[in-house]
Each structure stands twice: as C-alpha cells, then as structure tokens.
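This protein record is not my work; I was only asked to verify it. Would you go through it and say whether the fold makes sense for this chain? Here is the record exactly as it was handed to me.
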Amino acid sequence: MELPWDLGLLSGLLESVVSFCSEFAHDWGANDMRVTIFKLLLGWLVCSLVAIHMAWKYYGATVNDMYYRQGSGGQNGGTPDGSSNFARWENAGGESFKSHKE
C-alpha cells in the first residue's frame, strides 16, 4: 500500500531537479563568470583524477608491496621472521612484567 504523499514528494523532487537542470543549462549558455569558474574547476578535477589513475597504474604495485606484510600469518597478519629490534619489557631482575600461566 502506497502512501498518498509519496507521489507528491516524488513529483516535487522531480520538479526541483528539472528546474535546476534548466537553470544550469541557461547559465551554461550565458557563459558568465560562474560558468567559466565551474569549467575551470571541472577541468582541474578531471585532470587530477586522470593523473591519479595513471600514477596508480604505474606505482600501484610498488605501494601495495610496501604495505603488504610477507609472512606466515596471511595477508596482513603474522610476524616477521627475524627478531625484533624493540627492547623487551623486563624489570631489573630479568623477569617479565606480564606472565601467563594456565
């Protein structure tokens, strides 16, 4: 069962879109300063997206390999094979602060 206000809401939304498009087409034909700025910004956006796409095609595998951890734990898990360079958390007596016994 449809509510009666859905049709009114849809027609109002459609009317707003059509009026916006007609006003945009009128401004585009007038070739005023707003349209010139819009064309400039749109061109900048398209050029930037094309440059990002080309850079990703060229450097994408390198960037992916930099952040892809190799190891036995799966794609982004696991630990490195070598020992860590980080200091261990130990007190002066050489005992670990945290111990787990079951």
Q: What stands out?
A: The first helix runs from residue 4 to 30. The mean pLDDT is 75. The chain is about 60% helix and 0% strand.
